[in-house]
């Protein structure tokens, strides 16, 4: 009685109904008639390996009903590339149409990840990144930490060589808006260091720029660990001695009665001191401060850091 | 901006696995989430001057929950992130400090008991037929089999009576070309296959798996760079590596790649070729692990990485070999949120109970890998993390009050099977000890990787329970640190497929 069974265009297909796995299946779903019917046609065309315009329409129907259906997405991609037109122009047109449809679907289903894998396949085939950066930014307006969108953005940068096409400024904008957006920090690291054959922060000029960027962000919000981790990462990869950061870190982690403005600063200070000759005892004192006052929830970890330094722990851990 | 479900920026593995956000948008039956909320609760943790009684109660709190600690630092700069965090903290603090109890029965330390019967009933309800709008889970039903079977087992319930029903239910999900899809007629997928295999293991139903076809299918998702795709044509990420190696090891499939595996053309001959190196490439500048190389560090992927490495060799060998262990340790330690005591999945994100397993489960593996090892008797420090804080978060903030029960991400969210399963697993990591036997063999005669079978579990002492403010009756069963199954189930599977022939 449904849309497909009544359509003469589908009369040649014998639908394959759901095998429920016995009379008493666990966690079954009381499918709507519409979904059950559409799925039964999908099973049938997949079994026959049919890739056609009508199958494309069928997958669109299913995605509307259930965008989390990875099989439908994967099969749709196969279909799209199989029937996408006879000439290059037609193929481009069908891929563009696909993208337009995807835009709406992505905005409606923020957290769906299949969409992003599909988009990657389509844009890769299309061979053009036009409009993509803007679209992705629209997604970040809604959730600036969406993991799949960030992963897609990295792919874009790699695939279309966007390393120097505004990506660094883009991360700067997002970090400016929310200095605790760690996804943006991670992207910045990727843009600076991820390019094949590039020196990244091993280049002195780049390193200086990135150290300054991190320090500025820390100055704005010393309690924000993103900046501290980035700074430590740059120093480590860039081959700087941590000691070079000591004066800066000291502003946020005064040891002898000075002000402690950030537990992360105290943590990094302990690391800096541990690398200094004869600095282990003092590093131990910084770790004690963390343990006893500034970050007691991680008491055991700070205690263990002392053990790693070869310092005696203060007895059984609580 | 109120943080409604749709706007919740928190990213958890559920949405990576099953697009949970869609499920949460569905109209839910009128539940009793708010029936027990005390009317006098202002939502402000410590308004006004404390009374004498409150001061005494304050002194009884652990240091990280005392005002002096909580008021140490201020967010200097308000952003979207700090707003969301402040709200989560405000929701949790009254529960953590016992100022609010949501009418849960309390133990002798003033912390809620584990509502065993309630959570078990909730998990049972997740096996009933879902109404039509739940079509969003149509591609992830295997997870419901796993979350319920694993969760019930962790609560101590014998689930073997589900055997015939489960075997019948998953039969149409198995593809002739190997592996399981999310439903009948769906492509085989690493996540769905992992969940199905684990669920079948808990009920003793693994006989129905076509092992030889499984081996062939896994050969099609192994990649030349060493990692695994989630399905043919799908994304490559670290879940694939953990899921595939779990399946191979539990079912004792040959490590040798099938002859038709495409990775062979790149010179690979074994499922483990380039695998450790690929996992190592997922470690980021922060020290944590991303879903794929260069992606942001994320707690769920840290577990996948550590568990995968703990399958391919002994943890104290493979973890320091492929990862910067001190950097990862530091990253993991930083995930325990002050003051909530649970774990967050990423830097500057919100506490969420499912990470009680994804991050909480890393400690067993890390502690076995560290040198000196805190699980060894001669180490001065017994633990590198805070068990008491996690236990308190789970029992005070994550148990849904009222008849419906179940466990939840955080007080502002609804319970679901996923969070119930992984909250209970997290409780198990916190309440029990797991030891790796470094003297045991890491390869069997049939060539099977044996490292993951060399774990033993040990119950906490009375003294420890007192320290964590837990009563013996609220301790859950031991959960295998690599396979996240009951210990006894893993022993059984180890024997069942000992000879490894097809
Ligand atoms: Zn969660």
TrEMBL record, chain A:
Enzyme category, top tier: transferase
Annotated GO CC locations: CAAX-protein geranylgeranyltransferase complex; protein farnesyltransferase complex
Superkingdom of the source species: Eukaryota
InterPro entries in alphabetical order: Prenyl_trans_a
Molecular functions per Gene Ontology: CAAX-protein geranylgeranyltransferase activity; protein farnesyltransferase activity
Known EC number: 2.5.1.58, 2.5.1.59
Keyword presence, rRNA-binding: no
Keywords linked to the UniProt accession: Magnesium, Prenyltransferase, Repeat, Transferase
Annotated segments matching region Disordered: 1-24
Cofactor dependence: Mg(2+)
Family indicated by similarity: Belongs to the protein prenyltransferase subunit alpha family.
Name of the molecule in the record: Protein farnesyltransferase/geranylgeranyltransferase type-1 subunit alpha
TrEMBL record, chain B:
EC class name: transferase
GO molecular function: metal ion binding; protein farnesyltransferase activity
Region (Disordered): 23-55
Classification via Pfam families: Prenyltrans
Prenyltransferase alpha-alpha toroid domain location: 114-467
Cofactor entry: Zn(2+)
Matches recorded under InterPro entries: PGGT1B-like, Prenyltrans, Terpenoid_cyclase/PrenylTrfase
Keywords, in A-Z order: Metal-binding, Prenyltransferase, Repeat, Transferase, Zinc
Feature: compositional bias, Acidic residues: 26-41
Documented EC number(s): 2.5.1.58
Entry superkingdom: Eukaryota
Signal peptide positions (record): none
GO-annotated cellular components: protein farnesyltransferase complex
PANTHER family documented for this protein: GERANYLGERANYL TRANSFERASE TYPE BETA SUBUNIT, PROTEIN FARNESYLTRANSFERASE SUBUNIT BETA
Family: Belongs to the protein prenyltransferase subunit beta family.
Protein name: CAAX farnesyltransferase (FTase) subunit beta
Species: Extremus antarcticus
Lineage of origin: Eukaryota, Fungi, Dikarya, Ascomycota, Pezizomycotina
Gene assigned in the entry: RAM1_1
């Amino acid at each position: 009685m449904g849309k497909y069974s009544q359509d003469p265009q589908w009369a040649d297909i014998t639908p394959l109904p759901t095998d429920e796995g016995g009379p008493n299946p666990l966690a079954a779903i009381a499918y709507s008639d519409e979904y059950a019917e559409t799925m039964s046609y999908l099973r049938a065309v997949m079994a026959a390996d049919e890739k056609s315009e009508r199958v494309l329409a069928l997958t669109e129907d299913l995605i509307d009903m259930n965008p989390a259906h990875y099989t439908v997405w994967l099969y749709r991609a196969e279909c799209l590339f199989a029937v996408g037109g006879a000439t290059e122009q037609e193929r481009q047109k069908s891929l563009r149409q696909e993208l337009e449809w995807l835009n709406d679907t992505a905005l409606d289903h923020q957290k769906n990840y299949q969409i992003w894998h599909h988009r990657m396949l389509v844009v890769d085939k299309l061979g053009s990144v036009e409009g993509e950066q803007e679209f992705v930014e629209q997604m970040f307006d809604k959730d600036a930490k969406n993991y799949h969108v960030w992963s897609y953005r990295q792919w874009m940068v790699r695939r279309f060589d966007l390393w120097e096409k505004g990506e660094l400024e883009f991360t700067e904008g997002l970090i400016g808006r929310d200095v605790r957006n760690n996804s943006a920090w991670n992207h910045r690291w990727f843009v600076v260091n991820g390019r094949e054959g590039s020196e990244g922060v091993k280049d002195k000029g780049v390193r200086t720029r990135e150290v300054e960027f991190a320090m500025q962000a820390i100055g704005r919000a010393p309690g924000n660990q993103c900046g501290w981790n980035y700074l430590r990462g740059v120093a480590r990869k860039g081959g700087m001695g941590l000691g070079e950061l000591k004066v800066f870190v000291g502003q946020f982690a005064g040891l002898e009665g000075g002000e402690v403005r950030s537990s992360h600063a105290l943590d990094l200070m302990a690391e800096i001191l541990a690398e200094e000759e004869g600095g282990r005892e003092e590093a131990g004192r910084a770790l004690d401060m963390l343990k006893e006052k500034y970050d007691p929830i991680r008491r055991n970890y700070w205690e263990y850091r002392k053990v790693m330094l070869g310092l005696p722990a203060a007895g059984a851990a609580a | 901006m109120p943080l409604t479900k749709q706007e919740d920026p928190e990213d958890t593995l559920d949405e990576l696995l099953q697009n949970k956000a869609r499920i949460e948008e569905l109209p839910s039956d009128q539940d009793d989430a708010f029936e027990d909320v005390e009317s006098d609760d202002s939502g402000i943790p410590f308004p006004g001057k404390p009374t004498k009684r409150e001061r005494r109660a304050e002194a009884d709190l652990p240091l990280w929950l005392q005002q002096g600690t909580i008021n140490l630092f201020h967010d200097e700069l308000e952003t979207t992130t700090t707003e969301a965090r402040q709200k989560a903290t405000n929701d949790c603090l009254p529960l953590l400090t016992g100022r609010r109890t949501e009418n849960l029965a309390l133990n002798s330390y003033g912390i809620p008991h584990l509502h065993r019967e309630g959570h078990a009933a909730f998990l049972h309800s997740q096996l009933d037929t879902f109404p039509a709008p739940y079509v969003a889970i149509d591609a992830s039903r295997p997870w419901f089999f796993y979350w319920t079977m694993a969760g019930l087992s962790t609560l101590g319930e014998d689930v073997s009576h589900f055997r015939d029903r489960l075997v019948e239910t998953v039969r149409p999900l198995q593809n002739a070309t190997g592996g399981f899809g999310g439903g009948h007629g769906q492509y085989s997928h690493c996540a769905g296959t992992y969940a199905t295999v684990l669920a079948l293991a808990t009920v003793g139903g693994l006989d129905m798996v076509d092992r030889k076809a499984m081996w062939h299918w896994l050969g099609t998702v192994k990649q030349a760079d060493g990692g695994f795709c989630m399905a043919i044509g799908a994304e490559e990420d670290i879940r694939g590596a953990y899921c595939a190696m779990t399946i191979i090891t539990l079912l004792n499939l040959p490590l040798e790649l099938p002859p038709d595996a495409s990775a062979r053309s790149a010179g690979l001959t074994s499922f483990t070729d380039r695998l450790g190196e690929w996992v190592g490439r997922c470690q980021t500048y922060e020290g944590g692990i991303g879903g794929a190389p260069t992606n942001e560090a994320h707690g769920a992927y840290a577990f996948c990485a550590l568990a995968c490495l703990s399958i391919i060799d002994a943890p104290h060998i493979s973890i320091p070999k492929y990862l910067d262990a001190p950097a990862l340790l530091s990253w993991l330690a930083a995930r325990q949120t002050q003051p909530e005591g649970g774990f967050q999945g990423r830097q500057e994100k919100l506490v969420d109970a499912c990470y009680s397993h994804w991050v909480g489960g890393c400690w067993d593996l890390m502690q076995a890998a560290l040198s000196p090892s805190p699980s060894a008797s001669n180490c001065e420090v017994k633990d590198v993390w805070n068990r008491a804080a996690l236990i308190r978060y789970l029992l005070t903030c994550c148990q849904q009050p009222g008849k419906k029960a179940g466990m939840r991400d955080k007080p502002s969210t609804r319970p679901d099977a996923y969070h119930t399963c992984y909250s209970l697993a997290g409780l198990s990591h916190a309440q029990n000890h797991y030891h790796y036997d470094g003297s045991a063999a890491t390869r069997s005669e049939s060539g099977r990787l044996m490292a993951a079978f060399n774990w033993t579990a040990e119950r906490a002492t009375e003294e420890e329970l007192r320290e964590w403010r837990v009563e013996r009756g609220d301790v859950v069963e031991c959960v295998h640190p690599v396979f996240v199954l009951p210990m006894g189930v893993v022993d059984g599977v180890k024997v069942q497929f000992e000879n490894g022939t097809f």
